[in-house]
């Protein structure tokens, strides 16, 4: 990949986590700090293990997406983490107590240790070893309980569960992010004019509400890849944040072919994943 020098000529300030002026602020800002907010679910230390669990390694499960208290769409992505035990597909070894798989319990409690996790539309098994999935909720408030269980679906108990509360709202349209301009394969001159399109989600300035998962801001990734769900979008000359809520910008590119990835992310700059991104290839002629 050829070396490129990129000048972000954003049509507004980044406004990441600082007092945002009213819309239309023309200043080019490259100095604002990128908020490195850790997800809530990663802050809490593990709870004490029960006495009967002393042979097991210390650990916990954690919700990587969404955060506790989030407002999400009725169809929402979820992402699971586990520390101290490994994820393994169900059925491979029912006697192995150092591994297991995730279960999602919608509007229900953790399953006592040793009990089989039920299997129905409110007790979802990720027996393939999945750590990321999409679920569908009815509008309103719900609890999502992540429960780790062994290869025979026997629960590791409340010590290996965690619960987040979310409020689900129906999206106004199927969520989608896309380039209005430029278009795939375009031949362009630098600086390149950019226009960002969005459906379903709302554009909102960075830092205004970091738990809201129904809004966010655009990011441009030059000659890179979309960021995974929940990952913090980097901030450097090839990862440009439009934290002021901009939907139009300009970027200087060196001559040659480049990929441009539009990546939508939440108010804390955490990516909505490849599903909320679009990548195009353009050819800069001069
Ligand atoms: Cu950002």
Compact description:
The chain has 286 residues and is mainly β. It has strands at residues 7-10, 60-65, 70-73, 75-83, 86-87, 99-106, 123-125, 132-136, 140-149, 161-169, 176-181, 187-188, 192-199, 202-203, 215-222, 239-241, 248-252, 256-265, 277-284. The strands form four sheets. Strands 3, 5, 6, 7, 9 and 10 form a six-stranded mixed β-sheet that branches. Strands 12, 14, 15, 16, 18 and 19 form a six-stranded mixed β-sheet that branches. A four-stranded antiparallel β-sheet has the order 1-17-13-11, with no helix packed on it.
Describe it for me?
It is a single chain. With 286 residues, the protein is an all-beta fold. It has two domains: 7-24 and 172-284, Immunoglobulin-like, CATH 2.60.40.10; 75-169, Immunoglobulin-like (Sandwich), CATH 2.60.40. It has no helices and 19 strands. It has strands at 7-10, 60-65, 70-73, 75-83, 86-87, 99-106, 123-125, 132-136, 140-149, 161-169, 176-181, 187-188, 192-199, 202-203, 215-222, 239-241, 248-252, 256-265, 277-284. The protein is elongated, with a radius of gyration of 22 Å. Copper (II) ion binds next to strand 15.
What layout of secondary structure does this protein have?
Layout: E1 7-10, E2 60-65, E3 70-73, E4 75-83, E5 86-87, E6 99-106, E7 123-125, E8 132-136, E9 140-149, E10 161-169, E11 176-181, E12 187-188, E13 192-199, E14 202-203, E15 215-222, E16 239-241, E17 248-252, E18 256-265, E19 277-284
Parallel strand pairs: 3-10, 5-6, 12-19, 14-15
Antiparallel strand pairs: 1-17, 2-4, 4-8, 6-7, 6-9, 9-10, 11-13, 13-17, 15-16, 15-18, 18-19
